[in-house]
Amino acid sequence: MKLSLNGIQDRAAWERAGIALPEYDVRAMREKTKENPVWVHFGAGNIFRAFLCAAMQRVLDSGASDRGIIACETYDGEIIDRAYTAYDNLSLVAVMRADGKVEKRVVASVAEAVKADEAGLARMREIFRSPSLQMASLTVTEKAYKPENPMMRLIVSFLSERYNAGGTPMAIVSMDNCAHNGDKLHAAMMPAAEAMAGEGAVAAGFLDWMRENVAFPNTMIDKITPHPDEQIRQMLVDDGVEDMEIIHTEKHTATAGFVNAEQAEYLVIEDNFPNGHPPLEKAGMLFTDKETVDKVEKMKVGTCLNPLHTALAILGCLLGFTKISAEMADDDLSEFVDRLGYVESLPVVEDPGVLSPKKFLDEVVKLRLPNPFLPDTPQRIATDTSQKLSVRFGHTIGATQDKSKLHCVPFVLAAWFRYLTGVDDEGNAFTPSPDPRMEEVRARMANGLSDELLSDVTLFGHDLVANGMAPVVRAKFSEMMQGKGAVRRALKKVLSE
């Protein structure tokens, strides 16, 4: 079986392999999208294909829309050539469930895929001139959100084309995984537009039009999409699917004709679309107000997901684990995560209303973290921990009136200092993951965990000396420094408190 428009005509063969196919006329959808585009997306990577394209596939299958997505890749054009064009813009999406089952589906919602060459840029200008276009979304990482980044100027130039063609309003939607992503995108793109206006690169009146007619809604996106997995590749080959090799581009992008991802997914979007939006609510996406998006983001990052990830990352490195799922099979670590999530974090979470914090946490603890198919490592997650502690634990620290009730949170902070020593619980040296403040903090630890260090609000979001948590952090750190096996002993002790 070949992943192509002609190849999927043999529906019986794909169905025998347990691979679902589109329920709509793909060629007709592509023609309608080309004539009247509604959604263009920048960043044609794995999260886009596994989440956004799969969501739009469900919308198309339901009959709620007859137009798909146009994908544009500005960074690595090789992705378009080898992972899109080579497969007629089809993707095979494998959803890896925690129960060991894999759901496989051919996704055909990409109507067109372009790269940033001369022809592609000309096509993008044409698309932006179309009054039917409702939104342009991005998954290009937060690092791109700088006024001087060529990406910002490029999108401004496309918006200028739209202004010159009549100026129908639209939305520019960040779907990158960062808080207040729409605000950050707006804060990067407006200065880029102002600079271009100063250079005479856009028409008079463009800036006023952009301020009044282009919206930048905030979103909260959550879905783990690892690099293409060899196990999944072999499974598809065994099913009879051809040409499923894993591709590594010259720019070190890992891609393939397939994408694999976890089952859980969330996209909460500020409903600020001056020209309407595709009916993504039909695929479970939640449209709400800006305040609610912020509450959902805080729930995820500050209580119900990211703090658990960070705790497992630090402790996993110290205890010799290389997979998050393996940590969740460890009784001590599993109990620790339960206590951190349910006992210390959940009581202080602000319920956003559109998602139940308890149900969200249940899914994290029972399905997401233990999923053996997700090859996430504590070493990767431990990257840049100094930048994460205040965000991931600051809310729980601040919202807990009686700090003596916190046992797991100060233990994680103490474990981070123990982690920075670069020696695991067996006494073996290891290299901590990259962190911009690692050497600075290590130098400050030379004389122990001083008041000066523990009162650093930039690290913890709070003054741990002033709020009384400093002695607890010091005590737990001291316990973990008592030779081989001390981290494990300290972990067991905190579970008994």
Low-confidence stretches: none
Mean pLDDT: 96
Strand content: 5-15%
Count of helical regions: 22
Radius of gyration (CA) equals: 24 Å
Number of strands: 15
Domain tally: 2
Strand order of the largest sheet: 6-3-2-7-8-9
Second-tier CATH architecture of the largest domain = 3-Layer(aba) Sandwich
Shape: globular
Q: What is the CATH topology of the largest domain?
A: Rossmann fold
Give me the CATH superfamily of the largest domain: NAD(P)-binding Rossmann-like Domain
Task: Name the structural class.
Answer: alpha/beta
Please summarize the sheet with the most strands.
6 strands, parallel
**Helicity range of the residues?**
40-55%
| Cα end-to-end separation | 58 Å
- CATH class of the largest domain, anyone? Alpha Beta
Oligomeric status: single chain
Written description of the protein model:
- The protein folds into 2 domains: 7-288, NAD(P)-binding Rossmann-like Domain (Rossmann fold, 3-Layer(aba) Sandwich); 293-495, N-(1-d-carboxylethyl)-l-norvaline Dehydrogenase, domain 2 (Orthogonal Bundle).
- The chain has 497 residues and is of the alpha/beta class.
- The protein is 46% helix and 12% strand.
Note the main attributes of this structure.
N-(1-d-carboxylethyl)-l-norvaline Dehydrogenase, domain 2, 497 residues, six-stranded parallel β-sheet, Rossmann fold, 2 domains, globular, 12% strand, four-stranded mixed β-sheet, single chain, alpha/beta
